[in-house]
Amino acid sequence: MRDPNPLEPAVAVRNLRREYRRAVAVEDVSFVAAPGEVLGILGPNGAGKTTTVETIAGLRARTSGSVRVRGLDPRRDRAAVRRVLGVQLQNARFHDSLTVDELIALHRSFHRDPRPADEVLEMVDLHAKRRTRFERLSGGQQQRLAVGIALVGRPEIVILDELTTGLDPTARRRVWQAIESLTGVTILLVSHAMDEIERLCDRVVLLDRGRVRAEGTPDLLKARTGAPSLEEAFVALTGRRPDEDAEDER
Ligand code: ATP
């Protein structure tokens, strides 16, 4: 098995393209995430965000272009990539009849040096639910468990797709604190929530219709567009609000 190369960028995407029979989900996307960087991936609905991050996670094949995680191909070198990459997907599902404790134990067993279960429970505030089966958790609790499970293996790179969508304000803050407590971890954060992006992200890549529309710090995007807020900068650059449904013209 090939090993992750610490000298390579955490994540490097070059000219990524993904076509489906009736749609081009990603036209042409390139970006690099530096070690320890929290990189926001934002864009209107249908921009290609989930396709891009699921390709980085090795869960979708690409039509063309290259994707590397510490120099490895997420599809060819899947097992090695899994050692360094943690993934929380939109609407993640786990085995319904297993409890929180059992699911964490199962995922700990996949890793060489997993976080202690108590630490994971603490990070996502699920101590009180440890003996509850997955199917009996609320949507927000399921979401928090998915975040915890993404962090079980002490990943050096984490993909978080819709980190706090559907969580109440207290739970959101708790999850943000957990993310902020990670040091030196590279994070790709897909989000529609501009307050979350501004709080957590060092830099953002703004996707629109399968292409990179803009890239830079939130402050740079605001300065470039003369917008008072990141949300207004988003509107100026894409013509749509962050949570507006796309009428797909592609
Ligand atoms: P959202 O913010 O709504 O989650 P997104 O930016 O994550 O959107 P994607 O889910 O990556 O966007 O989808 C990009 C485009 O590709 C959309 O037009 C979508 O309909 C299309 N698409 C995604 N997956 C498939 C698929 N499996 N088959 C066909 N088309 C797809």
Report a brief summary of the structure.
Helix content is 32%, strand content 22%.
Describe the model.
It is a single chain. The chain is α/β, with parallel strands linked by helices. It has a single domain (11-238), classed as 3-Layer(aba) Sandwich (Rossmann fold). The protein is 32% helix and 22% strand. The strands form two sheets. A six-stranded mixed sheet has the order 5-6-7-3-8-9, sandwiched between helices. A three-stranded antiparallel sheet has the order 2-1-4, covered by helices on one side. Helix 8 (218-225) packs across helix 9. Bound molecules: adenosine-5'-triphosphate. Adenosine-5'-triphosphate binds next to helix 1.
Strand content: 15-25%
The helix fraction, in percent, is 25-40%
Low-confidence stretches: none
Count of strand segments: 9
Q: Give the CATH H-level superfamily.
A: P-loop containing nucleotide triphosphate hydrolases
**How many H/I helices?**
9
CA gyration radius, whole angstroms = 18 Å
CATH class division: Alpha Beta
Summed over residues and divided by their number, the pLDDT gives a mean of 92
Largest sheet descriptor: 6 strands, mixed
Overall shape: it is: globular
